[in-house]
Hints:
mainly beta
Amino acid sequence: MASISSYHGFTSDSEEKRFEWQLSVGHQWLQIDNDHVIETHYCHPGAKGITINTTHGKVFIDFDKLQTTNAALKVQRLSFLSQGETEDVGWYFRDEQLWREYGSQSSSMIASSVSSRDIEHQFTLNRQGTFSFTVGSTSYTLDFSTMKQKNSTTGMLRNVRRRPKFTYNIGSISSTSVFPTASTKQTNGRYKWEFMGEEGEWDEYKAHICAFDSSAIETEYQLNPQGQLQFRIKRYSYTLDFSSMYQVNDKIGTRRAVRRTADDGSHQNSSSGTLPRWQFLDISGIWTDYSKGKSSISSQEIELVYQQNPTGIMKFNTNRFSYELNFSAMTQRNLSTNTTRQVQRLNQ
């Protein structure tokens, strides 16, 4: 795992921000212009990396390894800290659906006994060591050298990521006209970004509500159409996933469909109306759609999990029973009675 380098003491350029991204060209480290764009992506735990345009062509930066795909170029991230100051770092684990910060709690999970701050303290003591903790009655071990979390009882492994918390002035992002990356062709037309509201109507994102309007979201989308954007509305944090076109409430897991509409009104991207339908074969031999009325999940939610791991397993509940949906076998199993039913995925 690549570490986050730190430089103690400020320069004139570091008064506004506390980080700097650099590429080595020959034997010289050069600052990357507009590196706050890289930083915003790096601080998102779900981001694997970012592609930037350089004089050497397009370069992909792998955030987990802090390496580039160009063997001649190296990358590093510096943190500018005053004496005695520590960087605010988040530690995240990947569950069946999302990257979650240690110490956080959702409606279906028990909060862990440790926080990001606790883990960061242990990490600074021994970056190649291990750290044990509990969640309820279950013990886990976090291996810093492999960035894996292991369930001490079942042996299940989960990926772990360490990312800094974003501290740069967000206002500078919207005022910057040149960005270090363009993974898709920029468009001169305006795109409207909307989410599915409570009444089944499309609502446009507004800057005064979530800090991002359609223009700002489109800018982030152009930088990485497969990436994610995080924002807050009052006491809740949300993740907008461009690849699946969903908005997810990070705390309770509620998902909403998202769409991107061009000036002419055509839907350039949308999670609604084009997703496959998921059905199970009921006791009468009839194929029945998954829906909120019959279970705790809908077809849209199943498809979202399926796209993330087409060979995986997801669990859900009804009023009386818990079930396991196996994507590889395309079966649904009642965990109490062991009754198994066929499942199908219909393209629309």
